[in-house]
Amino acid sequence: MIFRFVKVIPAVLLGFCLFSFINDSDYENKIKEWRKERIIELKSEQGYLNLAGLFWLDEGRNTFGSDAANKFIFPSDRSPANLGEFILENGKVTLIAKPDAEIYANDQLVTKLTIFPSDQEIVLKHKTLRWFVIKRGEKYAIRLKDLDSPYLKEFKGIESFPIAEQWKIKAKFEPTVGRKISILDVTGRLSEQESPGVLVFNVKSKEYRLDALSEGDSFFILFGDKTNKKETYGGGRFVYTSKPDADGYVSLDFNKAYNPPCAFTPYATCPLPPKQNILAVAVTAGEKNYGHH
Q: What DSSP string describes 99-153?
C-alpha cells in the first residue's frame, strides 16, 4: 500500500505540471499571435512605418511638390516639381492639382476636390505616395505616407520583454463620471479628454492607479514607468483593456503594452502619458524601445 501511494504522487505532480505547461503555452501563444498581428498592422498601408511627412496648413494657399520653392516639399524621387496646392479657408481644405499631376482619389483622377471636411477620410494618391488631412485641436495638417518608405524597408521587428503572466493584472475600475484629464502631445498641443474612470491594481503588494480613456468598446491607457528612456520609449507606451466585467474588473495585460507611433517615425503626433499615469515601478513587459525618434 505504501508503495502504491508513493507512486501516485509523481503521477499527480506530473499531471499538475503538464496542466500548468499547457496553460502557460496557451497564454504565451496568444501573446505571440497578438505580436504577429501587431507587426502586420505596422507594416500595412494603414500602419505608421510608411509615414513620410507631416505638413501644417496655413490659411490660404499651400503649394506642394518636390521643388524647394513649395510650401510643402515632397520626396524628389516620388514627386514632380509641383503637384498643386491645398487651399485652407475657414476649416475647409481644397485640393487644386496641376493638370498633369496624376493625383487620384478612390482611383479617380482629380484636379479639384474638397478633401476636408468629408463624410469619410479622403486618401489622395500619386505613385507610391498617399496623403490625407488630419485635424489636431484647431490646426490642420497633411499627413504624407510613402508605400516605399525607408522606415518600412529598414524595419526588422520589435524587441520585447519575455512574456510573463504575472504582468496580466486584474484591475478594479473606479468610475469618475464627467471627469476630464489634460493630455499633452509631442507637438505641444494640450487637450482635455473625458476619462470614464481609474484602474486600480497592485504590483508587488503596492497599489497603483491609471486614468483610462474610452475608445469604442475598450479602455485606452497612456502610461509611463521606470523603464522609459532606458529599455522602453521615453514618451511612454500604450495598452488597451476591455470594458469592466459584471464585478467591475478589467484585465490589464502589460504583455500587450506597445510603442506609440512616435517611436517609429518623426512624423507622428503622439499623446503623452499624463503625470498621474507615470508609474513609480518598472513594467518589464511588452515592447521595448525602437529607433531614436
A: TTS-EEETTEEESEEEEES-SSPPPEEETTEEEEEEEETTEEEEEEEETT-HHHH
